[in-house]
Amino acid sequence: MFMKLLVKRLTLAVLIVLPGIAQEPFGPARGGTWKTLSLGNGLISLEIVPDIGGRITRFYLGGHQYMLVNSELENGTPPPSRVGPDGSWLNYGGDKLWVAPQGNKGPEFWPGPPDPVLDGGPYEARVVEEKDGKPTAVELRSGTTAASGVQLSRRVRIYEGTTRVSFEAEMRNVDTKARRWGIWAHTQLNGRDKSGTGHNPNLFAYCLLNPRSLHPKGYWVMYGPPDNPSFKPEPENGMMVVRYLRQVGKIGVDSDAGWIAVVDGTDGFVFVQRFTFLPGRPYPDNATVEFWADGYGQASPDAKPVLSPMEPGYGLESEIIGPFERLEPGRSATFRYDWYAANAGGNFRVWDCNDWAVTCGPMSAVVENGRIKLGGRFGLFYVGRIELMLKDKEGRVVSKSSRPVHVTPLVPLVLENTDLGAGVKADPLATAAVLVLSDEKGNVLGEVGHAMITGRQ
């Protein structure tokens, strides 16, 4: 978040006076609620509020809610200006689309938030797909603005039997001249503890560093002190580890792995964003991933230090950015990405991620007394079943488990606690153990885990 807009404490029922606009109180709608669109499939559910920038204000897996929602602004009726007192940002929280790069250095930088159109304005919303009378995909479209010269839209879709949410974001040039931006998917995650009175010290984020990074350390500090303990690179593992300590700061990472994972270690719920890295393309801020932490401290030399316990919010921002797109008038560009959710069962770090699962304990396969004992911990993104397949050095299946294990995103897969982990007969030709995921109809989806077999004499 650009720090000239460092969180201002907004007071409910403030009287806004702007030239040409009638005085209107801003505060909670009396007896009302935001008008929302809901998507759900029995595993996950989303609440979308078109009227405040097309935000996703809530995302649930089971009963766990991932998003930050500003309780002071929740259910409030936005003023006609769509900005707060003195032009301040109405930071509702949640997930939304912006454009990058951000700043006040010139017309090639987006100066928001606030942005009364892209960030805070009403979005047109329509259901584009249904199943059994329930919406499965919605489309959200912003108004047009001369400030950025673009109109933003995105299609949000859910699927049966999985926590996957797919996004197809579009940026269209509505100006009379060429515009150059990257599409920025900006997500604010809840950083409060369970009591709601303090920050959650068990909130972590993980992403892989680019071994060919443009930055000497694999990342760069955008705001806050260079030694902020919230951001801990692990060069030996090629990993960036973020811990929410409520100390203000922001970093940019040019990760080429295509995923970010945020873990609430208090109860083990994981939030994953996946995207496609395009090598050779320039990116805003030379970053595909950015992390911002709300908290105390001074974001930049010209920013006011945050000292009062009433000022900073409780949010960890997990952001992904598409490459620069130079658009002639009337042209558009698309940025596709996905969300996934799972339960890892506790405060476990993330080592890897694919389209089927997040790895929170690397898989192992060790021969003991003629049997292969398996280890590993995974958070699954699908309801289905896992089979163990043993493969030879040519990649051919030589044997497989007789009893598949049922899996769900609501429960972690801990191999030691399954029949598979108890051991399967070691085939003398097998060199690798592979976990294969199928959906509930038996359709093979892909490999969840892979390990070379060790321990043979």
What structural category do the secondary elements indicate?
mainly beta
Distance between the termini: 56 Å
Q: Strand content of the residues, in percent?
A: over 45%
Write down the oligomeric state: single chain
Which CATH class of the largest domain is shown? Mainly Beta
Mean pLDDT: 90
Indicate the percent of residues in helices.
under 10%
Tally of strands:
33
What fold name stands as the CATH topology of the largest domain?
Beta-galactosidase, Chain A, domain 5
Low-pLDDT regions? 1-32
CATH architecture of the largest domain: Distorted Sandwich
The figure for the number of domains is: 2
Placed side by side, the strands forming the largest sheet appear as: 8-9-10-11-23-19-18-13-16-15
- The general outline is globular
Number of DSSP helical runs? 0
- Tell me about the largest β-sheet: 10 strands, antiparallel
| Rg of Cα set | 23 Å
Task: Tell me briefly what this model is.
The protein is mainly beta and about 450 residues long.
Written account of the structure:
By secondary structure, this protein is an all-beta fold. The chain folds into 2 domains: 3-343, Beta-galactosidase, Chain A, domain 5 (Distorted Sandwich); 354-454, Sandwich (Immunoglobulin-like). Helices cover 0% and strands 46% of the residues. The chain has strands at 14-18, 21-26, 37-40, 44-49, 55-61, 64-65, 95-100, 124-131, 134-141, 150-158, 165-173, 179-190, 203-208, 219-223, 231-234, 239-243, 249-253, 259-264, 269-275, 289-293, 315-321, 325-327, 332-343, 352-353, 357-368, 371-380, 384-391, 397-400, 405-407, 413-414, 424-425, 432-439, 444-454. Strands 8-9-10-11-23-19-18-13-16-15 form a 10-stranded antiparallel beta sheet, with no helix packed on it. Strands 24, 25, 26, 27, 28, 29, 30, 31, 32 and 33 form a 10-stranded mixed beta sheet that branches. Strands 7, 12, 14, 17, 20, 21 and 22 form a 7-stranded antiparallel beta sheet that branches. A hairpin with a 4-residue loop joins β15 and β16 (239-243). It is globular, with a radius of gyration of 23 Å. The protein starts with 13 loop residues before the first strand and ends with a strand.
